[in-house]
């Protein structure tokens, strides 16, 4: 497997309109996130990247929503995703829509997001999937340098592995929008063959305790429940008398 860190600098689009059929992708992603906005809570929602800032999150109960990107319009804070200008554990939720697709070091961005997220905070990731028709387009020299084929595409399994290393609990993951040239993405195909979707979304929560008990903790728990020596013997003796 190739390293996630590359030397090449990728220029992220400043708007969904800079991507062919970008508005279709944005609408499809908003449809997937719609049921989850009401479940996010807290005081601060951080939208990282220009594409994230254009996602409609009006149904999210978090009122203070901050748009962060190195440059662009409708920004509240102009900052680098690799060096977020926020204190440790100060943000309740983070939105990364295709931010990792245009990152030269996605691991570093995830670690920086993990730093500013509070315990049990929410992380929402959206991106392009390589196991799709868009992924096939990356293999064609004619399309390789065009949007969105020039972006980096990570499999959902790889993203889930990164999150597990950071001890995140995945609440929801899905792929959708099978036909990239279709406005609805091919509803029938998306319903029956979601694995071929050209877009993916992951909703996860930051956990501070291990999701599974370690061997040492299980052994200590068993030792603490060992029955006192002679307890049964004393009980039986008194009962027989």
UniProtKB/TrEMBL annotation:
Listed Pfam families: Methyltransf_11
Residue span(s) of domain Methyltransferase type: 76-125
InterPro entries reported for this sequence: Methyltransf_11, SAM-dependent_MTases_sf
Taxonomic lineage of the native organism: Bacteria, Pseudomonadati, Pseudomonadota, Gammaproteobacteria, Enterobacterales
Name of the protein in its database record: Class I SAM-dependent methyltransferase
Domain of life: Bacteria
Source organism: Rouxiella aceris
Keyword vocabulary terms for this entry: Methyltransferase, Transferase
CDD domains: AdoMet_MTases
Entry's Gene Ontology BP terms: methylation
MF terms (GO), sorted A to Z: S-adenosylmethionine-dependent methyltransferase activity
């Amino acid at each position: 497997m190739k390293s996630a860190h590359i030397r090449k600098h990728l220029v992220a689009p400043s708007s969904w309109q800079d991507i062919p059929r970008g508005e279709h992708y944005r609408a499809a992603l908003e449809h997937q996130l719609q049921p989850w906005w009401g479940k996010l809570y807290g005081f601060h929602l951080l939208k990282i990247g220009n594409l994230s800032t254009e996602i409609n999150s009006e149904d999210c109960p978090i009122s203070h929503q901050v748009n962060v990107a190195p440059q662009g319009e409708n920004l509240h804070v102009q900052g680098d995703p690799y060096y977020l200008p926020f204190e440790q554990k100060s943000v309740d939720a983070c939105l990364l829509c295709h931010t990792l697709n245009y990152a030269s070091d996605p691991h570093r961005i995830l670690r920086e997001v993990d730093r500013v997220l509070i315990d049990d905070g929410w992380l929402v990731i959206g991106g392009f999937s390589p196991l799709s028709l868009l992924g096939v387009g990356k293999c064609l020299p004619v399309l390789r340098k065009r949007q969105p084929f020039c972006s980096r595409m990570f499999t959902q399994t790889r993203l889930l592995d990164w999150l597990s290393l950071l001890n995140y609990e995945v609440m929801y993951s899905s792929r959708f929008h099978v036909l990239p040239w279709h406005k609805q993405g091919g509803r029938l195909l998306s319903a029956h063959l979601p694995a071929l979707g050209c877009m993916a979304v992951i909703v996860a929560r930051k956990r501070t305790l291990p999701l599974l008990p370690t061997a040492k903790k299980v052994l200590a728990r068993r030792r603490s429940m060992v029955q006192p020596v002679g307890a049964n013997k004393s009980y039986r003796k008194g009962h027989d008398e």
